[in-house]
Amino acid sequence: MMNVNKGIFNAVQYFGGTVIIIGIITFIFGAFASGSSLLTPIGIGTVMGGIFIFLMGMFFIITEEVLEKTTKKLNPQK
Questions:
Q1: Counting beta carbons within 10 angstroms of the beta carbon of residue 64, is it exposed (0 to 12), middle (13 to 18) or buried (19 or more)?
Q2: Residue 76 gets which letter from DSSP?
Q3: DSSP letters spanning 31-58
Q4: Cα distance between residue 35 and residue 31, in whole Å
């Protein structure tokens, strides 16, 4: 079951990291390079969304691990 968790972790890590990097680039472009300040809050929201995606993915992985350990304690023959 650990291989499934590694796959989920890798997917969450790469997707969340990509969203965070896009958000940082958008924020920097909006704050410094662009004449319009519209991209700044979009960049901040994108970074927060990437962090949220990463944290939710970690929550699911941890929950699955805890449920697996609890099931093994309740059913030691499996």
A1: middle
A2: T
A3: III-S-SSHHHHHHHHHHHHHHHHHHHH
A4: 8
Residue pair 61/9 in contact by the 8 Å Cβ criterion = yes
Q: Decide: 50 and 8 in contact? Cβ < 8 Å.
A: no
Residue with tokens 């965070």: 20
Q: What is the pLDDT along the chain (78 residues), one digit of tens a residue?
A: 566 678 888 899 999 999 999 999 999 998 888 777 888 999 999 999 999 999 999 999 999 888 888 887 777 775
Place of tokens 């979009």: 42
**Cβ pair 47, 20 in contact under 8 A:** yes
The span from the CA of 28 to the CA of 49, in Å, is 17
